[in-house]
Design goal:
This is AMP-binding protein. It comes from Spongiibacter nanhainus. Belongs to the ATP-dependent AMP-binding enzyme family. Keywords: Ligase. The protein is α/β, with parallel strands linked by helices. It folds into 3 domains: about 40-190, Rossmann fold; about 205-410, ANL, N-terminal domain (Rossmann fold, 3-Layer(aba) Sandwich); about 425-515, 2-Layer Sandwich (GMP Synthetase, Chain A, domain 3). The chain contains 17 helices and 25 strands. It has a 9-stranded mixed β-sheet, sandwiched between helices. A 5-stranded parallel β-sheet has the order 4-3-5-6-7, sandwiched between helices. It has a 4-stranded antiparallel β-sheet with strand order 17-18-19-20. A hairpin with a 4-residue loop joins β1 (about 25-30) and β2 (about 35-40). α2 (about 40-55) packs across α3.
Length: about 525
């Protein structure tokens, strides 16, 4: 007789438990400057953390917050929370108190686990805003129990993942912090499973991967753990991103795989000691999370090698909507280097106009997605969810152009588009032109109020070390290519661009910074 259990798919907790119970002696987790842990070591630690959390009354559906830098305990906790079918609520380690407190309250945390050496003061401040919040420390602390000490009191047991279904919430993530209060996204087991499946099938992994994690384990870094484990690889975890430390680790540990955001790539290229290190072991550099400058990507390929693979997604459809494979990076074609690749075959991806109708090749349209990767919606925000799912598609907010080969080139976010004198200007197009100048390291383009045109184009530019260029030359480059109405009305040179906690250029901060300054004349 056929029953529901016969064809029930295995979800991430099941897969994680199964693979952690195979090959226990295989090396898996290299601690920076420390021990090399085996699959069995990680399995046993995961079991001890499951028992610890359960002994504190936590279980399926419990909301467990985390505030920590890259510690091995973060991986044990993430594994444990998933196998218990609790709800994981990670907080970005670079976030501010206001956002952290908002997330803790909005998520309804049962417990906040924190790293005492870095975040004791922050955890205490959050708890003062939320009386009754239980605090647990990853180590000795004065605010709550020592999670690590409790864990060592338990003997490792066979891993038994909790029973879950596809629509069960596995994680509460928060997005949109640069446009207002963060929005809660309820990631479900279905999405977690499909993310791993697409990453395994479509991403270009070395065999086996020796992966370097220098992005936060609380966020994208942890997403690389299960694919690395399934591919038979191992992972080196750094405390955070430091250019010299990353370059040294690649050389010393013969790293063949790493994930970086564009600003990290720029920092490596601009590191004065870059040429001191042997990076020949690198096979694949996954990059994404924000747009990359095509000239800087060309530079990276020429200096590091043809090892770059781009992924595109967003919190609402994570990690795996499109890919630009290594062989598709053409250093002689900056338009191709500006592409986020082609849609993966697991999803329906379309470019739609404001009436939710498909646009022709070469015409701008919003990237819209259908398929099992798409979120269920924003938690407790029905109107926002309805808006995001208008016409039966997830609306990404990214405007792109598709070429005849199916490659998408994102020209901007819909909310970042500048309307000047009745004309639409996409900042990404202006940024790409300015970035082609050899003196330019980074550039951010935003719209600012203008007494005559409504909005005007402002370019905020970071120059390369010991380089110079006249503002008028940059304005002329854009005017020659795109016309005067798209050219910046002002250019500002700065030491650095503001970044979000995820390392993306913070357009909201740029707009706020220059909104009230008298940079724009009434010409």
């Amino acid at each position: 007789m056929i029953n529901d259990a016969l064809h029930r798919p295995l979800y991430v907790p099941d897969i994680l438990a199964n693979v952690l119970q195979q090959d226990p002696d295989r090396p898996l987790l290299q601690l920076h400057g420390g021990d090399l842990l085996s699959v069995g070591d990680v399995r046993d630690a995961t079991s001890q953390y499951i028992q610890t959390l359960q002994s504190l009354g936590l279980g399926k559906g419990s909301r467990i917050g985390l505030l920590s830098s890259n510690l091995p305990e973060v991986l044990y906790l993430a594994n444990a929370v998933q196998m218990m079918a609790a709800i994981y609520v990670p907080m970005h380690p670079l976030g501010g108190l206001e956002d952290h407190a908002f997330v803790a309250e909005d998520a309804g945390l049962d417990v906040l686990i924190f790293e005492p050496s870095r975040y004791a003061e922050r955890a205490q401040a959050i708890a003062q805003k939320l009386p009754g919040l239980v605090l647990l420390g990853i180590g000795d602390n004065d605010l709550g129990a020592n999670l690590c000490e409790i864990a060592t009191s338990f003997d490792p047991q066979q891993l038994e993942p909790a029973q879950v279904e596809g629509d069960d919430i596995m994680r509460l993530g928060y997005s949109g912090g640069t446009t207002g209060k963060p929005k809660a996204l309820a990631s479900v087991q279905r999405t977690g499973l499909v993310t791993v499946q697409i990453m395994m099938a479509e991403w270009e992994w070395p065999s086996p991967p020796n992966f370097l994690c220098c992005t936060p384990l609380s966020h994208a870094g942890a997403a690389m753990f299960l694919p690395t484990l399934l591919k038979g690889g191992q992972m080196l975890v750094l405390p955070g991103f430091d250019p010299v430390q990353v370059l040294q680790a690649i050389q010393d540990y013969r790293i063949n795989c790493v994930m970086l955001v564009p600003t990290m790539i720029y920092a490596l290229l601009d590191c004065p000691r870059f040429d001191e290190f042997d990076l020949s072991s690198l096979d694949t550099v996954f990059y994404g999370a924000s747009a990359i400058s095509p000239p800087r990507l060309k530079e990276a390929i020429e200096r590091i090698g043809p090892v770059f693979m781009q992924f595109y997604g967003q919190a609402e459809a994570p990690m795996a909507v499109t890919v630009l494979r290594k062989r598709e990076h053409d250093v002689n074609d900056l338009q191709r280097l500006a592409s986020c690749g082609r849609a993966v075959p697991w999803l329906n991806v379309a470019l739609l106009d404001e009436a939710n109708q498909p646009v022709a090749d070469g015409e701008p349209g919003e990237i819209c997605v259908r398929g099992p990767l798409v979120m269920n919606g924003y938690r407790d925000m029905p109107e926002l969810t309805e808006q995001a799912f208008a016409g039966g598609w997830l609306h990404s907010g990214d405007v792109a152009i598709r070429d005849p080969g199916g490659f998408l080139r994102i020209i901007d976010r819909t909310k970042d588009m500048i309307v000047t004198g009745g004309f639409n200007v996409y900042p990404r197009e202006v940024e790409d032109i300015i970035a082609e100048h050899p003196a330019v390291a980074q550039v951010g383009v935003v719209g600012v109020p203008h007494p005559k045109w409504g909005e005007a184009v402002l370019a905020v530019v970071v120059l390369r070390s010991d380089a110079s260029v006249e503002k008028e030359e940059l304005v002329a480059r854009v005017a020659d290519r795109k016309g005067r109405f798209q050219a910046p009305k002002a250019v500002e040179f700065v030491e650095s661009l503001p970044l979000t906690a995820l390392g993306k250029p913070d357009k909201k901060a740029l707009r706020e910074q220059y909104r009230s300054q008298s940079l724009i004349t009434a010409e």
